[in-house]
Amino acid sequence: MNRLIIALLIVQSTFFTASAQNTPWQDTLSSIDRIFDTWQSTAAPGGAVRVSRGGELLVEKAYGMADLERNVINTPATVFESGSVAKQFTAAAVLLLVKEGKLNLDDNLCQHFPDFPDYGSGVTVEQLLHHTSGLRDWGVVAAIGGWPRGTRIYAPAHVKEIIWRQKRLNYEPGSAYMYSNSNYNMLGFLVEKVSGQKLQDFTENRLFIPAGMTHTQWRDDFNEIVPGRAIAYSRQEGVYVQNMPFEHTFGHGALLTTVEDLEKWNLRWKNRLLGKEVNDMQRQKGKLNNGKEVSYARGVVMGNVNGVTQISHSGGTAGYRAWLAYYPEKDLSVALLSNDGSANPERLGIQVAEVFLGKKEIEYPDFPEVALDADSMRAKTGLYINKTNYDTLDISLREGMLRIAPWGAFKYIGEQKFQQGGNILTYANPNQIIWKSPDGSSQTFDKTTPYRPNPTELAAFAGVYFSEEADVKVTLDVHKDRLRLFRAPDTYFLLTPVYPGVFKDEEGNTLVFTRLGYAFSTSRVLHLWFQKL
Q1: Over the stretch 139-170, which tens digit does the pLDDT of each residue have?
Q2: Burial of residue 193 (number of CB atoms within 10 Å: 0-12, 13-18, 19+)
């Protein structure tokens, strides 16, 4: 098939629904096309989008290629993997069991899995649903051990083994929020244990079939042939390469579906499928032990766009990307699926919604700049460290303004405060900064002297270390006056000193040393212990 014919097919595919519906919204369609401009090529993957309001189809379009090797285009009926969008289906299955009295939200996991680690206070079903359990993300632990997801085949048994192997949690259950796939793997195991059915069978009978989702199934066997499925891709060194999820795990993700099926699922928010009780439970935000509310509800995130409530979730597995959102005040549904791993599904999905909801630019208070003498400004420069997570701020003075990479310049607005957009820096005292972000969260940074150990001091950290939790052994040595970490068979990381006893590797992960070993912290995994041998 030549490239001209392929291009014509792409045009036919993307505009078919608009023609069939005889819609007058050519400006609307053009706006949506501009959002997905990078996908309108026969040499790139793309995706599909479907928008409806009040059950009426507004837009259904597909872009780019489903298979670059075989010149197969994406269509609105193409099957993609939805990544973590799947979590709301797992959560819905759990809530159905709660509604039927077969499960309680405050059940301790040890009640259902007697051999599950107790961790002192125990982990509840409710904490799993809201990502407040403290369970480490099993995939990140596997990556620390040298085998990231996608480099070897993982089955549910591997997931259980890794989760059960952990000696501690990221934090006390209920004390914080940290997204972790392990929560929803455990919920999937729980549905199977309590219902006596495979997750596929339970959700097919209770969710997919009743909703009319005829092209949806769990990818619990990646070897299975799935007609109409798009190949997933990611970009490496400027070119697309295949990036498929070669694993058998599910519950946290691994749902194969179409944009039409996702729209059918979104209709459930109008009480057509699960009923008001389950819908209300699923929309309820989580609360921490201190009463603070988090935006993550039960398998969905509660937010708003332009003042309109948004019930949503994004997804990403290997090279697949997804976004599903419902706007109840407008009865608007937006479903987006993609096989382009470089896509930002949340940003794209919200841009589509804004075509119909309007876009309101975020306006931060713009305080007038106040003069401050150079000596006072200079006294505020230096290295500041967050002693909780060891993030650092390297503050310099240039052209009369404080500058912090990568944010740039901050202007002085008086009362020991500096502003850049929605970020406010407050000097609580000469040696301490409070950073307040636009979302209202804050961090405290203390001034410190840069840690510059000499080769002799670095040599004290050299040696062999073993992590039982990650099942991996590493070797540290001094190489060209730098502390270096080696993980077999061929991986090296140079470590940069941050604070006495604290180093960061080239990926920004933190190693906190004691005389006995070090605690490794990264996204979704905190304080993973490596014992010095």
Answers
A1: 999 999 999 999 999 999 999 999 999 999 99
A2: exposed
Distance CA 175, CA 367 (A): 35
Single-letter amino acid code for the residue at 284: Q
User: Cβ of 458: how many Cβ atoms within 10 Å?
Assistant: 20
Dihedral, 77, 78, 79, 85 alpha carbons, nearest 10? -80
On whether both 346 and 412 belong to a single domain, the answer is no
The answer as to whether 142 is a domain residue is no
Band (pLDDT 50/70/90 cuts) for residue 359 is confident
What are the pLDDT digits (tens) for 407-431?
A: 999 999 999 999 999 999 999 999 9
Q: Are 219 and 55 in contact (CB under 8 A)?
A: no
* Residues 303 and 443 both lie in one domain: no
**CA quadruple 97, 101, 104, 105: dihedral, nearest 10:** 60
Q: What is the mean pLDDT of the chain?
A: 93
Structure tokens at 221: 């066997």
Mean pLDDT of 247-258: 97
Question: Could you tell me if 216 and 255 are in contact, meaning their C-beta atoms sit under 8 angstroms apart?
Answer: yes
Domain containing 503 — which CATH number?
2.40.128.50
Q: Which of 100, 528, 80 is nearest to 337 (CA)?
A: 80
Sequence-ordered list of residues with C-beta below 8 angstroms from that of 98, at least 6 positions apart, any chain: 104, 105, 125, 281
Torsion of CA 146, 149, 152, 154, to 10 degrees: 120
Note whether 433 and 470 are same-domain residues.
no
Does the pLDDT at position 5 exceed 80? Answer: no
Q: 3-state secondary structure string, 219-237? A: CCCCCCCCCCECCCEEEEC
CB 324 within 8 A of CB 313: yes
Q: CA–CA separation, 77 vs 72, rounded Å?
A: 13
Query: In CATH, what number is assigned to the domain containing residue 431?
Result: 2.40.128
Q: What is the CATH number of the domain that holds 36?
A: 3.40.710.10
441 and 459 fall within a common domain: no
For 85-89, 121-125, 212-216, which range has the lowest pLDDT when averaged over its residues?
Answer: 121-125
In a domain, 331, yes or no: yes
* φ, ψ dihedrals at 498, nearest 5°: -120, -40
Of the candidates 427, 345, 419, 347, the one whose C-alpha atom is nearest the C-alpha of residue 380 is 427
Dihedrals phi, psi of 514, to nearest 5 degrees = -125, 180
Q: Tell me the residue range of the domain where 394 lies.
A: 374-447
> What's the confidence (pLDDT) of residue 1?
36
Q: Which residues pair with 13 in a beta bridge?
A: none
Torsion sign, CA atoms 166, 152, 93, 49: positive
| Domains in the chain, number | 3
361/169 Cα distance (integer angstroms): 40
Q: What is the rounded CA–CA span in Å between residue 133 and residue 183? A: 7
